UniProtKB/TrEMBL annotation:
Keywords: Cell projection, Cilium, Cytoplasm, Cytoskeleton, Flagellum, Repeat. It comes from Echinops telfairi. The gene is EFHC1. PANTHER family: EF-HAND DOMAIN C-TERMINAL CONTAINING PROTEIN, EF-HAND DOMAIN-CONTAINING PROTEIN 1. CDD domains: EFh (cd00051). It is found in: Cytoplasm, Cytoskeleton, Flagellum axoneme. The keyword Cytoplasm applies. Residues 572-607 form the EF-hand domain. Residues 92-197, 238-358, 415-519 form the DM10 domain. The keyword rRNA-binding does not apply. SUPFAM superfamilies: EF-hand. PROSITE patterns: DM10, EF_HAND_2. This is EF-hand domain-containing protein 1 isoform X1. It comes from the Eukaryota.
């Protein structure tokens, strides 16, 4: 215990451990009176230290905690709190019981592969401990009894222990490397868990030990000898053989094929042989038999799946049922030693035998000759966007692709002939509306390249936009694509380039000459649009000429700015006024409304009463009620 030094507050750093103290025991809270356990409140603290005199009792603290103001009927009387009862008294002799089992491997026995051991799991509520006990079975030869003594069992590597909330029916419980399957619990355990709000799983059946169940069976089994006379069968059916024609279709596997066989069934001893049918020059070794004459098993016993058939012969003890004559029916499949044979025909003696013996008449004759499949139409895969469609299609026609054929005469006649067009991009994005591109159409190869002239301070890097390639029209088929030609380019034409739309705005002089010399390739409307556009460019625009000679607005603005800078050269606004306007212009448009403009001018004490300043504001004013502060700031800055 630590106590503060006299005169210092009880704070961290002001208390020290009493080195002379040796007793640290706690007072007893349980006593016995007349043989009954009763509780009592401690009168002293740890080590016999005296408790503070003014400390409230637990009853007084509970009364204060439950006190509620009542104005109408006064203070209500609270029920006295429950008496303090330790856990080892409240849950004394209360134990949860679960029925479980675990599986144990038996590697050194031929009679059993594993055994089931049933156990009881006990959970002691007073201290959350558990124990696992296996009921003792006489003459079992196994150490039974208490498997795990009473203790708290770890649930995980973090040191947590199993709690009764973790237990339920139908779950697995892993303890010390063994997994126990909980199947059921007793009535007290069920009522306790349901009272605590836990939903119990339905009970399961207890697993039984297979070797114990085997011991319960009678020791001797008698088999009545068969009255079938094998000698009579040999004498009656000697030299009588059923012949079936079958095929083995193995085309689903790699290097598999469809082969024909003859199945012989000997009625004298129920043996079967399978013979191969060899054709002339089939390239196979002349082995006559696929399966030698033998008894073929149909159903094996459960334990005979791992029987070494390649070393030992299968006897009657490993077989439950053998193949008989009724298993060979025309039109059905039969699996013999892992191979599936389809029986499609038989000989006349076999048909007569099935009619007399089994009452099956008119066995069918199935045609198994394979017809040549119809030719499959070769479909090209989807275009991936790399290279030309013709180049990509050559990989589908041959293993070693060849270059597609080119029109050499056209390449020689149109060498170095290029048609150039000016186009604008159609895009909902505002930044792309003013972009201009130059289309170059190469007549020798029908390829198109796109170049974007660099524009300073545009924020877009110009240069090569698209290399030389052939551009196919939208909604064209891959097997027969339609490409853009010279006739598709005219003034106002819309060109779709891989999802981007461009509008032709202008052409060079060589385009007009080429179109007039090859008028058959163009429509009359396309030729007329280019001719009219070229004539308009050659004619001088009178309005533009008059504007250049008669519009004195720019000259007047520059003269006014120079005059203001001379007269107000001592004005000390400098660049601060520019920053103020830019802070209010969030869109960087260069304009602000009139109210914001005059507020900023008043904050910087701009002489608005001056006649030159008034004239400058008039020139910078816009029709929409906004003012261009860019030219205005030039008059008051460097």
């Amino acid at each position: 215990m630590s106590h503060p030094v006299h005169g210092l507050p009880f704070l961290p750093g002001s208390s020290f451990t009493d080195s002379t103290k040796t007793a640290f025991h706690r007072s007893q809270t349980l006593g016995y009176r007349n043989g009954y356990a009763v509780t009592r409140r401690p009168t002293v603290g740890i080590g016999g230290q005296r408790l503070p005199v003014n400390q409230l009792s637990q009853d007084a603290l509970d009364e204060l905690a439950n006190m509620k103001p009542a104005l109408t009927y006064g203070q209500p009387k609270q029920a006295p709190p429950a008496a303090f009862l330790p856990a080892h008294v409240a849950f004394d002799k209360k134990v949860l019981k679960f029925d479980a089992y675990f599986q144990e491997d038996v590697p050194m026995s031929t009679e059993e592969h594993y055994r089931i051991r049933q156990v009881h799991i006990y959970y002691y509520l007073e201290d959350d401990s558990m124990s696992i006990i296996e009921p003792v079975v006489e003459n079992s030869g196994i150490l039974q009894g208490k498997l795990i003594k009473r203790q708290r069992l770890s649930k995980n590597d973090r040191g947590d222990h199993y709690h009764w909330k973790d237990l339920n029916r139908g779950i697995n419980l892993t303890v010390y490397g063994k997994t126990f399957r909980i199947v059921d619990c007793d009535l007290f355990t069920q009522e306790f868990l349901e009272s605590q709000g836990i939903e119990l799983n339905p009970p399961e059946k207890m697993a039984l030990d297979p070797y114990t169940e085997l011991r319960k069976q009678p020791l001797r089994k008698y088999v009545t000898p068969s009255d079938f006379d094998q000698l009579k069968q040999f004498l009656s059916f000697d030299k009588q053989v059923l012949r079936f024609y079958a095929i083995w279709d193995d085309t689903d596997n790699m290097f598999g094929e469809c082969r024909s066989y003859i199945i012989h069934y000997y009625l004298m001893d129920d043996t079967v042989e399978i013979r191969e049918i060899h054709e002339r020059n089939n390239g196979r070794d002349p082995f006559p038999l696929l399966v030698n004459r033998q008894h073929l098993p149909k159903v094996l016993v459960e334990n005979a799946k791992n029987f070494p058939q390649c070393v030992l012969e299968i006897s009657d003890q490993e077989v439950l049922e053998w193949y008989t004559a009724k298993d060979f029916i025309v039109g059905k499949t039969i699996t013999i030693l892992g191979r599936t044979f389809f029986i499609y025909d038989c000989d006349p003696f076999t048909r007569q035998y099935y009619k007399e013996k089994f009452g099956i008449a008119d066995l069918p004759h199935i045609d198994v000759s394979k017809k040549e499949p119809p030719p499959v139409k070769q479909e090209l895969p989807p275009y991936n966007g790399f290279g030309l469609i013709e180049d990509s299609a050559q990989n589908c026609f041959a293993l070693i692709p060849k270059a597609p054929q080119k029109d050499v005469i056209k390449m020689l006649l149109n060498e170095n002939k290029v048609l150039r067009y000016l186009a604008a991009m159609e895009s909902p994005i505002p930044e792309d509306k003013g972009r201009r591109f130059i289309f170059s159409y190469f007549l020798a190869t029908d390829m198109i390249s796109i170049f974007e002239p660099p524009v300073r301070n545009s924020g877009i890097i110009g240069g090569k936009y698209l290399g030389r390639t052939r551009i196919f029209k939208p909604n064209s088929l891959l097997d027969n694509p339609v490409y853009y030609g010279p006739g598709d380019f005219f003034i106002g034409a819309v060109i779709d380039v891989f999802g981007h739309r461009f509008v032709i705005l202008d052409v060079d002089e060589y385009v007009l000459k080429y179109m007039e010399s090859n008028a058959a390739q163009y429509s009359p409307e396309a030729l007329a649009s280019v001719q009219n556009h070229v004539r308009q460019q050659e004619a001088p625009a009178p309005e533009l000429a008059n504007k250049q000679t008669e519009d004195p607005g720019t000259q007047e603005l520059e003269t006014l700015i120079e005059e203001i800078q001379k007269q107000l050269k001592d004005y000390a606004c400098k660049d601060n006024i520019r920053e103020a306007f830019q802070d209010h212009d969030k869109e960087a448009s260069g304009y602000v409304d009139r109210e914001t403009f005059f507020k900023i001018c008043e904050s910087f004490s701009v002489p608005l009463d001056d006649s030159l300043v008034k004239e400058l504001i008039r020139i910078c004013s816009h029709d929409e009620g906004r003012i261009n502060y860019y030219n205005f700031v030039r008059a008051f800055s460097n």
